[in-house]
Amino acid sequence: KMTQQMRDLQLAQARKPPGPSSPNAAKRLYRNLSGKFRVNYTSFDEGSLVGRGEKEKLRKSYLFQSNAALFEAVELQDLDRVQEMLKHYSPEELDLNTPNSEGLLPLDIAIMTNNAPIARALLQAGAKESPHFVSLESRSLHLSTLVREAEQRVNELMAQVVNEAPNADCSEKEKQLKAWEWRFRLYKRMKAGFEHARVPDAPSSVLLSVASSSSLQVTFWEPLSVNSAVVTKYKVEWSCSPTFSPLLGEAVIDKLKDLHFTIQGLVSGTAYHIRVSAYNMKGWGPPQASTPPFAIPSNWREYDGRAPRRRGQAEALDHLLGQVKTVHQHCICHEPCKNQPQSRKHSVSKSLKHLFHPGSKFLKTLKRGLYLTVIFYKDDNILVTHEDQIPVVEIDDTYSCLLMQDFLWLTKVSCMWDEILWLRQCVTVSQSSCSCILQTRFKMLLAISQMQGLLGIQDLGQVFFEPIKDKQGNILIVTLKEVKTNQTFESVRWVPICKLQTSRKSVSSPEEPTALDTLLISVQDKLAYHQRSSHALSAGLYLGYLKLCSAVDQIRVLVPEQLPNILCHVKIRSNPNISREEWEWLQKMASVEEPVPTEPEADRSQNPLFRELQVAIKELMTLVNIPLQEAKDFRLYSQEVLDFGDQVSFLLLLPPSDDVCTAPGQNNPYTPRSGFLTLPLQIFELGEER
Length: 690
What we know:
With 690 residues, the protein is an alpha+beta fold. The strands form 5 sheets. Strands 9, 10, 11, 12, 13, 14 and 15 form a 7-stranded mixed sheet that branches. Strands 3, 4, 6, 7 and 8 form a 5-stranded antiparallel sheet that branches. Helix 4 runs parallel beside helix 7 (116-124), helix 8 runs antiparallel to helix 9 and helix 13 packs antiparallel against helix 14 (436-455). The chain starts with a helix and ends with a helix.
């Protein structure tokens, strides 16, 4: 008979009927569900349902079948099926942590049958152990009860099968007997797995690093032993004493997707000792001390007490712009504009709705001059007029040579599209000087206003890093903007880029394409650049390579094509923080003018940052195609760590001072491999800010 504990447990779980009781039943469930794993239950045709009640009934039935199938898949040790169900169902939909009528969870079955792959898959999905097993004794008693009752049921059915004459009832009893024999063997295997298990070994490795001036990051790895039961949680403990007495705090980690933990709220300048222990169904194993054995929360800025470079910069610039506006608001040039209504910020749907009426001033063809074009795109589609034209407006029909300084000025203007009207009014006051530069820039502002008015939208996107030129004297400045809305618009349409490219009738020869033809041919490359330039780096500390080259009118910087808003780089580690001790070591190395570390040295082998830098420098030199021996003359920039927010930081690797910037005509023997480009320094700075 059941113990009182098991009776109470069964009453509590009466709402949850047991799953199929045999391998054959499980296989039938698999066949029934095989076509449904790839769709959610909400994908059924709702029109065929009588109402919400029937829909909810179907949902519950469907999810119950999935839950029962999960139990059977775990019992049958079917890893592929378990992974498939975890992929297509949420833990809530599977009732992953609700015990069945036997008081067991899927994770209990996996760990007691010592099926490590299934147990790890369940743990990654958020599975827990049964809360009913409050002690080793309660788990042992529970398993003994399941084995005894299964054995008793097998004996009863066997006696009935032997004593009854062959008939339909006897055949059904034989099926039940086989099912209970299978379950009896399962419970015996679970009981044996529990009895032979032992507490886990200590974690194989525990690494400690300084995450900030008030936190430490602990990263650990599971025990190496393969004989003990599966580890289901870890405990991190910290103390100011190497004996861990008194203990300052502890944290239990049962979400095992990532084996790391950040200890917050620590005191800067205080040494903390850390240890980690593992837990399985037999209890807690011995702790593993961290490497290094202690760490002190700190940040490199504490070395000389400097404040963050960008602190208050945005506020200061806004204040400065406000002051400039205040000075200019009473200028004569603003008087004619006082009665002009403020231009409305149309929504994208309104603005694009009235694009390109017959009276619009968009151009179909280019005549010798300077032009502005915008590319709005969504996925693989591009927005065009009813005449299948990319929007183009004229800046200056007498301007045949775009000065780089004018172009770079326009890229800065793109950071304040909302202020174009005000900028026009400010530039107007200087028109009497007849400055060619001011006249050109005023025409640029007029063209921008015209484009904004025709599109009904102020934000024209990001300026592409170089204009398109042709041999006919046309210069095309391109801006790019991704439209993420899903509205449909009247009078305009989204056209696949490939269709626009094939349907356009070129008026130029392949040898001398016009600027518009060149734009269409290379539009995918420009969209790829625009998307890549907005990508962000994952959290970590990086080693960047600063390489410049100069021309007559600009300085350009080497960047990777895949991430053009960041210098050439490799990742040093996932922790972005440089501690005070690490920065002191870097300062010491710089003060004695030591070369960058490319070869191991015995007296530095214990410095983790030294080893990390060795690996990163070798990887970076290979990336930019520079022989490693040349790196001996390189230097690390020791004035500061470049922080980009709280999660990304950079150390800079600099060539010798004579080689940081290659002058025009200067020979550069080491040319980077494919996958790099050079951007004007001002464009790179703007992309970095974005």
